[in-house]
Amino acid sequence: MKTGDSGSTEQIAVRNTRQRSAVSAILDELAGFHSAQELHAMLRERGDRVGLTTVYRTLQGLADSGEVDVMRPPGGEHLYRRCSQNHHHHLVCRSCGSAVEVAGPAVEDWAERVAAQHGYVGISHTMEIFGTCPKCAARRTKSK
Q1: What is the distance, to the nearest Å, from the Cα of residue 95 to the centroid of all Cα atoms in its chain?
Q2: pTM attached to this predicted model
Q3: Rounded to 5 degrees, what angle do the CA atoms 89, 124, 85 make?
Q4: Backbone φ/ψ region at 97: left (φ over 0), alpha (ψ -120 to 50), beta
Q5: Are 87 and 43 in contact (CB under 8 A)?
Q6: How far is CA 99 from the centre of its chain?
Q7: Of 122, 87, 116, which is closest to residue 101 (Cα–Cα)?
Q8: Which of 20, 39, 76, 132 is the most exposed place for a label (fewest CB within 10 A)?
């Protein structure tokens, strides 16, 4: 299901194919965000015969139906991850790509205020915060 800007839910019909099931299954097994090309390579290593175009198309369908989150890092390709269904933001490690879901009530309040100040209604937003996770920061400290 997908929630529209008005808050209503609409059912999105997505055909369940062998390829879609393989992409969905690998997303269930992985932590963090991964590109379509990374997922395609992992599927091929497992012996799943899924074309790269099919992976991209499947990921777009899963994103449209709200089954995966999409992150658009600066200068990079879209990255995908299976996430929880409630609204959240991501804290993402620049080094290893690990991600943590975080709630952001202050961000929600700020977005509503800014929209109202400018007369906007039915707003939505996404936000990713980038930094270095504790494991990568510890590795950097040890290597110095």
Answers
A1: 17
A2: 0.63
A3: 50
A4: left
A5: no
A6: 10
A7: 87
A8: 76
Can you tell me which residue has the tokens 């369940």?
16
- Higher-pLDDT residue of 16 and 143 is 143
pLDDT for 1: 36
Using an 8 Å Cβ cutoff, are 130 and 92 in contact? yes
- Do 63 and 71 form a contact (C-beta atoms < 8 A)? no
| CA dist list (Å): 49 to 14, 27, 34, 95, 140 | 20, 16, 19, 30, 39
Which helix (H) or strand (E) covers residue 45, if one does?
A: helix 36-45
Cα separation, 105 vs 109, in Å, equals: 6
What is d(CA 108, CA 106) in angstroms, rounded to the nearest whole number?
5
Residue type, 18: R
How do residues 86-97 score in pLDDT, each as one tens digit? Answer: 777 888 888 887
Cα(111)–Cα(125) distance, rounded to whole angstroms? 8
C-beta of residue 132 within 8 angstroms of C-beta of residue 140: yes
- What distance lies between CA 30 and its chain's CA centroid? 12
